[in-house]
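User: Could you go from structure to sequence for me? I need the amino acid at each position, not a summary. Structure tokens:
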């Protein structure tokens, strides 16, 4: 021998602990994670209510709160001590509001909540679409004030409810707000509950997925503590926060096959030369697992992982995870790719049929298909029919054009195959604006 050995790269081996991850998860004190989107008419009290949740659950410290209160008093709008804005929109500026509470997260003993949009903007439909595409449920804020509820129902409430429904959001927590303005009238609450129920079921929601809580965001009544108003004693149901805690459909996703959408790919770490991060959409994984990356179809080994910045042996749906990988060429990993289990992989598809809510006129046309971070160019190739909003039955077959505000079934073809499966929330865009949003079925 000349003493020179052929260099072969030995595959990394990691022994799996073969954990029952679901059992580990139940044993652990892991908090559940839930994302929600806030909808409702302008001035219904969405900002005030969310600010109240953030303040009551200590997402905002007292000093910051006091600062906001002082600033709000200066501009003469007291309740804005509780109003929050993720980014200051023109509406807030017009009102002279200068506060900026840069958080959208709060937590209880059981659950970590993320509010996935910024309410309060007059033009927040684009934000809401992005928000709704990640939402586990929606919070609909209704103004119980006399006359206001009726006018709100005609306006944005309707539009928003339809939008979140068309994106596949199934649960709605209805905060019947400003109950202080109607002296906590039970009759008023019952009337609103009845009308909103029938409106939402017509929009396609199932009544078992709706809950109603009478509250006052301004006074903090029935949000995280029970109202002390003597007229409010008739309500003995759950507080708003308790309803939020039971509204996330999170456990269902645990038993489904593994799906993780890659957010970022990190290279060059000393200990971990190749890592990916992302939220686990469904299923679970553990150290030692072999995973499949789509669309490339390449496999990789999970060497180690982290959840919430801490090393862990496993991770489950709803958690954000960082996976340190081995035995794969980084060229096969891109943001937007899907990590799955080799036994139940996601398929690459090139065309799909979907039910969408049209925001613009739809016809056979070029569109960009967006699903989370994945986007790909394609076209609407066929208009199958317009649909009845409540029953989903075909209202008109093969229309030439679908007008805005209509729900329709369309066939979309993409320029090349991508990993996509039902149920996926998708957004269709053309010339820089959203033309439709819906659920791949
Ligand atoms: P948004 O447009 O839905 O975000 O509504 P805001 O949170 O900005 O509230 C609109 C107005 O309603 C503000 O003047 C608030 O002070 C007021 N408001 C909000 N919640 C309540 C409430 O529970 N009771 C009363 N009386 N007023 C409220």
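Assistant: Here is the amino acid at each position, in order:
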């Amino acid at each position: 021998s000349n003493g020179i050995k052929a260099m072969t790269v030995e595959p990394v081996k990691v022994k799996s602990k073969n954990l029952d991850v679901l059992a580990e998860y139940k044993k652990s004190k892991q908090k559940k994670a839930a994302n929600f989107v806030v909808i409702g008419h302008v001035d219904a009290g969405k900002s005030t209510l969310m600010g109240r949740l953030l303040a009551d659950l200590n997402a905002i410290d007292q000093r910051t709160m006091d600062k906001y209160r002082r600033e709000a008093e200066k501009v003469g709008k007291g309740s804005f001590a509780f109003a929050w804005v993720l980014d200051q929109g023109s509406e807030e500026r017009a009102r002279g509001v200068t506060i900026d509470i840069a958080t959208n997260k709060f937590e209880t003993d059981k659950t970590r909540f993320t509010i996935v949009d910024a309410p309060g903007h007059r033009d927040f439909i684009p934000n809401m679409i992005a928000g709704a595409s990640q939402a586990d449920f929606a919070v609909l804020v209704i103004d119980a004030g006399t006359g206001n509820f009726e006018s709100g129902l005609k306006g944005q409430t309707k539009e928003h409810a339809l939008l979140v429904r068309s994106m596949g959001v199934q649960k709605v927590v209805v905060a019947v707000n400003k109950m202080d303005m109607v002296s906590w009238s039970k009759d008023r609450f019952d009337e609103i509950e009845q009308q909103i129920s029938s409106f939402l079921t017509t929009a396609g929601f199932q009544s078992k997925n709706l809950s109603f809580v009478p509250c006052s965001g301004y006074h903090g009544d029935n949000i995280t503590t029970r109202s002390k108003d003597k007229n409010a004693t008739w309500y003995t149901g759950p507080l708003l926060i308790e309803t939020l805690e039971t509204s996330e459909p999170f456990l269902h996703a645990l038993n489904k096959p593994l799906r993780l959408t890659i957010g970022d790919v990190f290279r060059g770490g000393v200990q971990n030369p190749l890592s990916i991060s992302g939220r686990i959409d469904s299923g679970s994984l553990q150290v030692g697992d072999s995973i499949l990356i789509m669309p490339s179809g390449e496999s990789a080994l999970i060497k180690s992982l982290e959840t919430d910045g801490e090393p862990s042996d496993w991770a489950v749906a709803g958690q954000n995870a960082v996976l340190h990988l081995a035995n794969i060429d980084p060229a096969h990993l891109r943001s937007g790719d899907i990590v799955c289990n080799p036994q139940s992989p996601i398929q690459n598809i090139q065309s799909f049929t979907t039910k969408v809510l049209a925001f613009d006129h739809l016809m056979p046309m070029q569109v960009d298909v967006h699903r989370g971070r994945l986007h790909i160019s394609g076209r609407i190739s066929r208009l199958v029919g317009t649909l009845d909003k409540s029953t989903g039955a075909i209202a008109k077959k093969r229309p030439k054009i679908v007008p805005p505000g209509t729900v329709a079934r369309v066939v979309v073809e993409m320029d090349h195959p991508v990993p996509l499966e039902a149920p996926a929330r998708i957004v269709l865009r053309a010339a820089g604006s959203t033309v439709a949003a819906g659920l791949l079925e």
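One structural detail worth keeping in mind: The chain has a mean pLDDT of 84.
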